[in-house]
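Many introductory courses stop at the sequence. We go one step further.
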Amino acid sequence: MEQALKGMKVVDLSQVLAGPYCTMVLGDMGADVVKVEKFPLGDDTRTMGPYIKEESYMYMMVNRNKRGVCLNLKTDEGLQVLYKLIEEADVFIENYRPGVTKKLGIDYDTLKSINPGLIYCSISGYGQTGPYKNKGGFDIMAQGLSGLIDMTGERTGKPVKVGIAIHDIAAAQTAIQSILAAYIHRLKTGNGQYIDVSLVDSGLAWTVWEAAAYFGKGEVPRRNGTAHRVSAPYQGYKTKDGFILIGAANQKLWEKFCLSVINKPEWIKDKRFLTNSIRAQHVDELEVELENVLKDHDSSYWLDLLDKNGIPSGPIYSYDQTLADEHILSREMILEYEHPVAGAMKTLGFPAKFSETPGQFKSPAPLLGQHNKEVLTELGYSIEEIDAFQKKHVLS
């Protein structure tokens, strides 16, 4: 099958997670992604374990479907190679701190003069403007500034970081949708443009319910554990042997839950539990009452009963359980492939299932400088010139 982004050419100067995740998805959808790594050691993720035969699993996870070049941009020759790549590129992605690209000679104005139709995407911690623009910003700092850490954790506990690098992935997703929108615009007009994406903005944009509560009523989100601030029961509850999630968060589900699952018809008329909003005000009392019932049986008993009665529910898995779950496997969210050095490997699959242009795994993450000769030959360089570049430390 032909892929949706076949023909799109992407030059990727990003590293670690947000940028590489973005370009991985573009590559999954058919774009020709050339990953340009810094000389001489490449993407910083290559130094992060675990390692399989000295290859970083972290690096391999987000750099599939790319060709790899290791280029010394501090040399005139290296810069000229990049400029040649830009001549034919549709998209350029970088995640340097603001100001660094200007010093390197790869800023938007410079590359736009080479290719006026270029879509140039910068990903940074705080963005290209504002008082924090020059600060270094990792995911955890973005979680702190966006308020996410303060609203995560148990009510009486310390603030807690979200378990994944959520702002990095939010920035990656923002970059993907923005690049695709700019690409459609370019197809219509022929015009490229500059895209400024920040980790902070991207994650903050996901806090829509919290913003509604604050703008509408002045409510500052508080730590609620797994509980919801306006719906109940909608959280994790303790059973005889563990924890389960229950989401009887509207009146019809609540009444069915009381009658057919926990056999507590009297709760339907209990003044503390009359409506969803009232239940949310008495969420702690509801939790105590409900766990006094759930403690009588194992999680599997309750989950089966909840399913039979159409009440949204589910387990709280450890990650190894997630990756072994039959539904996850049936959705092909675990892919197996062969890496030229590391051997048999597993990676995550494609979350969107296209009927006509599905994501495809075409190649594992490149070895450092694996495609130097291939890419430079396509740009018109001779083998002798490429060999000379390697001797002069233009290429790694």
